[in-house]
Design brief:
Blueprint lengths: L15 E3 L14 H16 L7 E4 L8 H19 L12 E6 L10 E5 L6 H8 L2 H18 L5 H12 L9 H19 L7 H14 L4 H10 L8 E6 L10 E6 L11 E6 L3 H5 L6 E2 L1 H6 L1 H18 L3 E8 L2 E9 L4 H13 L5 H8 L4 H4 L1 E4 L3 E2 L8 E2 L4 E2 L1 E4 L2 E7 L2 H9 L4 E5 L7 H6 L2 E4 L7 H8 L3 E4 L4 E4 L4 E4 L2 E4 L3 E5 L4 E4 L4 E4 L4 H8 L2
Parallel strand pairs: 16-17, 17-18, 18-19
Antiparallel strand pairs: 1-2, 2-5, 3-4, 3-5, 6-7, 6-9, 7-8, 9-10, 11-25, 12-13, 14-24, 15-19, 16-23, 20-21, 21-22, 23-24
Helix pairs in contact: 3-4, 4-6, 5-6, 12-13
Protein name: Pyruvate phosphate dikinase
Pfam family, one: PEP-utilizers
Organism: Lampropedia hyalina DSM 16112
Length: about 550
Amino acid sequence: MNTPTAPQSPALPPPTLIGCPDSTLRASALPGPDTIGFKAYNLVRMAALGLPVPQAFVLGTHWQNAPASQLRQSWYSGLAALESATGLRFGDNRRPLLLSVRSGAPVSMPGMMETLLNIGLTEKTLPGLLRSTGNPRLVWDAYRRLIAGYGEVVLGLDSALFEADLQQVGKGRDERELDFSELRSLARLHLCTVQREAGKSFPQEPLEQLEQAIGAVFASWHAPKAQEYRRLHGLSEHMGTAVTVQRMVFGNAGGISGAGVGFSRHPSTGEAVPWVDFLFNAQGEDVVSGRRSARGHDELSRLAPAVWKELRHAIAKLEKAFGDMQDFEFTVENGQLWLLQTRDGKRTVQAQARIALDLWQEGLIDTAEARRRTAGLDADTLAVPRIVAQRSEGKADGQSSALAPVATGLSAAHGVASGAIALDEEQARRCHATHTPLLLVRHDAETSDIAALDIAQGLLTARGARTSHAAVVARHLGKVCLVDCQDLQIDLARRVIHLGGQPLPEGTVLTLDGNTGHIYVGTVKTVREVPAGILERLAQLRE
């Protein structure tokens, strides 16, 4: 590590180390989540369980507003510990250490703050990563991702600029189909975009990248979407976020590599089966950002059965240790599983009841805890709407028609919701002001839409994964959510969508059936039903 001598100050506490040889932390002696954030707190707990966690150091919430010079002293020592633990050197032109920089508040705030990946990759360290991996596609993919991520998070550039670059090079192809020469061209195009739009060059000094990334992640605590989330959930503005700096593992290494997000049980129904989205040859942001579509785990279990078996074992260990359904993120690098996060999963009230009852019967929680988790749940709160109508009302021409879906999406949250199409927050607020039920219809499932989502009855997107941060938030807010509707095109200029080839102007009423994934034009008749057996099991628990 080519660093200047760090300034000395006895008042500075050392960073918390995770997975490093000189880390003596045990779960029983951990700093609390209020100090190191819930993400890092659970990383240490996972490492203590013997689960595979990349080495990291944590800058606590007390550094939220610290001067850069003081903050620098703390991360210098953490960086030295990571270098020692990994045998790699940050900024080295032979065997470079690359880092992720992640936020982590004392309570879970999915996707409301920022993450930066591949920090430390520059024109000088590129050849070193190429030599150490022998994988030119990985190297140029990581570099173009870093440039775009840095441009968005640190420099405040619009993500659409980098999406346009991708379209120019890829000509409509999935980015995972691009070869290394095309990714190299894309990286060069991103460099020009940063220079043109930001009026400055992308930094080629690794320490500058790291310092700016840490500062930007701390600053994201004050982002409008983070503030709105705290307002909706009654969270204090004074908690601040911690920052976790972690060794990169590469899901975009090709072969048996990829990124995934999952729940140890179904977050809408509570069914005791893993609910996982996975993308081969991808990094974690591809799944959680809502800008890419991801499917279930079938391909992972088929092509990498040993990894799937290891993941199932890890899921069982997490549930036993944490005593609840878990929402986890993971990366597979050349067949090696790495866990990047776990937390108690957001869920519907129906899933809340079933999961608590199942955990109680499995002996993972006691009777008192099961009663606490199901307190206040009754027939009214547990009822779910189900479509029963044979005809829909409210077609664009005002006529009724036989009930038939016009398109289908992936269900991220169950239930049924009807409302007028709103294509952005401004239109959503207009509908809300006139007490008109609305559905937010967007190209991507992004957490920046949280204010509009709060006043909508549901969310429909053309891209995105069931486990993306926006889908998690929608489910927790009790909204019906369908993502990855491949028959949806949105023309914002004309304020029209095309759904299954049918043009529908903004304001047209749609119905989303989160139970089946079907989408209907108009409203439909529904009945409310409680999932079978839940009330009887609750009565047994409360005897």
